[in-house]
Specification:
alpha/beta, Rossmann fold, 8-stranded mixed beta sheet, 8 strands
């Protein structure tokens, strides 16, 4: 079974892990896997970025260049613009941006581009994970059909999951290893294997019943945060207008 094959590769740290997108989400993630002993390859369209990384220079403040050099010296990491190397990967994690358009709907072009590359080089025995923030249903409605166009069947030939990125850039207190990882697969096998994978680098993994629950979880978190920031700003305006020390109010309410 594909589930057992992948589990053996993961527990033996021989699973080849590919990460598409080496920004503030993808780079910390791939270096974490590399430093834990997994062979990794990072995929980027920006050749300047891959050249710098292959020389041991990090462009992300949360990833010291020293860690990149350690991964390179151990022969556990390389960056490339050659997406044909996806065929060698047992695990493919998508960490591309999903900015909002002027109309406030998400720009899915980066996810779709990543999906096209995966479809082009997909093979039996791979686990694909989406981390990019998106709407509930993207994993099974968009990515799954794309991969199946390569002639592969879910559970029989490949596994598919969603695990929202929860990075807080620039915050040294919370980094990849100590931020709880929510994981939801398109099916039980996908959830089980994806959770096992992240447990290799993350202290706490919270498995949920489906990819859609995991996708909705990220939207819930983002909405909750945005509402609280807005409320705090409005309350600060009221306090200032009344001559009240806003921070004293915050401390008292905490």
């Amino acid at each position: 079974m594909i589930k057992d094959e992948l589990k053996n590769l993961i527990t033996g740290k021989t699973a080849h892990i590919g990460v598409i997108g080496l920004g503030y989400v993808g780079l910390p993630l791939i270096i974490e896997f590399a430093l834990k002993g997994f062979p990794t390859v990072g995929f980027e369209v920006d050749r300047k970025k891959t050249d710098e990384l292959n020389q041991g220079n990090s462009h992300i403040v949360d990833v010291p260049s020293e860690n990149v050099r350690k991964a390179l010296e151990a022969n556990k990491f390389k960056a490339t613009t050659d997406f044909s190397q996806l065929k060698k990967c047992d695990v493919i994690i998508i960490c591309v941006p999903t900015p909002l358009r002027k109309t406030k709907d998400p720009d899915m072009s980066y996810i779709l581009a990543a999906g096209e590359e995966i479809k082009k080089y997909a093979r039996r025995g791979q686990l694909v994970i989406l981390e990019s923030t998106t709407y509930p249903g993207t994993t099974d409605e968009v990515l799954q059909p794309m991969i199946e166009e390569a002639g592969l069947k879910l559970d029989e030939d490949f596994l598919l999951a969603f695990s929202p990125e929860r990075v807080d850039p620039g915050n040294p207190q919370f980094q990849t290893h100590n931020i709880t990882k929510v994981v939801g697969g398109v099916g039980k096998d996908s959830t089980e294997v994806a959770a096992l994978l992240y447990a290799e680098i993350v202290e706490n993994v919270h498995a949920v019943s489906s990819a859609r629950v995991a996708e909705a979880c990220k939207l819930w978190e983002n909405t909750f945060r945005a509402i609280n920031i807005g409320m705090a700003n409005e309350m600060a305006k009221v306090c200032n207008a009344l001559g009240i020390d806003t921070w004293e109010v915050v401390r008292a309410a905490a």
